[in-house]
Amino acid sequence: MIATLDMYDFPEIRDATNTWWEALARGFIAEGLTGIPPHRTRFSDENASWSAPGLIFTQICGYPLRKRYRDVLRVVGTPCYRAEGCDGPRYSSVVIVQRGAGIGSVEALEGARLAYNGALSQSGMNAFRALLSERGIKPGFFGDAVCSRGHRASVSMVTSGEADTAAIDCVTWALLQKHAPHECDAVEVLAWTPGAPGLPYAVPASSDEQTIAAYRRGIDRAIADPAAQSAREALLIDGFAPLTDADYEEIDAMETRARERGLPSLF
């Protein structure tokens, strides 16, 4: 059996993520759950983990959950992060530009080169599309778009001038400011996207209500575990909300509204 926590797995906080999993594992075992691995498994491609044989626990972005994995995974709940742009289990994205580039509004990004972390990203794609659609922006707005394959890489591309803008998950942005602040020095926040439910913890879709309840109690144990306090602080985790799959239908609605407003694609 395997468990993954790859979504915010920067090298600077890898030990904290390991410690956080160990606290979660203790909580799950205390609640009578079986087959809990003592250590998490790391995947170089986070997408591969979500359909991996033997997966029992993971964290996933809400957009791919709804688009591709809704029949594979079931939401247990959502960690709450201590980061600007978060509201309990909800989060948004910062739209960044190079500091001093003279870009003063979202509308001024017309013709710009976009860096995006992935086409199946809530924070880097769907939320940015929602923001643009609210402004009445239509297809063909950006001059070019390049897939960076990661938010941190998107920040680097805007810093270097390889791209003009990107939407960055606000938890990623806060973690970079805390653990690698120099990487944020050359960029600035232009705007914030609409909010949505954050990145949930998920288990196999076959899990019954009793199992889901045990996982939630186990997470609450980990949140209260003093041995994991320093890890939680490093990861900016300060709570847990027992959201369900139904809460993530909001992400579907966000996409639908953008399409109805005439913006079916961000790029």
CATH class of the largest domain: Alpha Beta
| Overall SS class | alpha+beta
Name the CATH architecture of the largest domain: 3-Layer(aba) Sandwich
| Mean of all residue-level pLDDT scores | 96
The major β-sheet equals:
5 strands, mixed
Q: Count of DSSP E strands?
A: 12
> Could you name the CATH homologous superfamily of the largest domain?
Cypl, domain I
Fold topology:
Layout: E1 2-3, H1 14-30, H2 46-49, E2 55-59, H3 62-67, E3 73-81, E4 90-91, E5 93-98, E6 113-116, H4 122-134, E7 144-147, H5 151-160, E8 165-169, H6 170-179, E9 187-192, E10 196-197, E11 201-204, H7 209-224, H8 229-235, E12 237-241, H9 249-260
Parallel strand pairs: 1-2, 6-7
Antiparallel strand pairs: 2-11, 3-11, 3-12, 4-10, 5-8, 5-9
Helix pairs in contact: 1-7, 1-8, 4-9
Keywords:
single chain, 267 residues, alpha+beta, D-Maltodextrin-Binding Protein, domain 2, 2 domains, 5-stranded mixed beta sheet, 36% helix, 20% strand
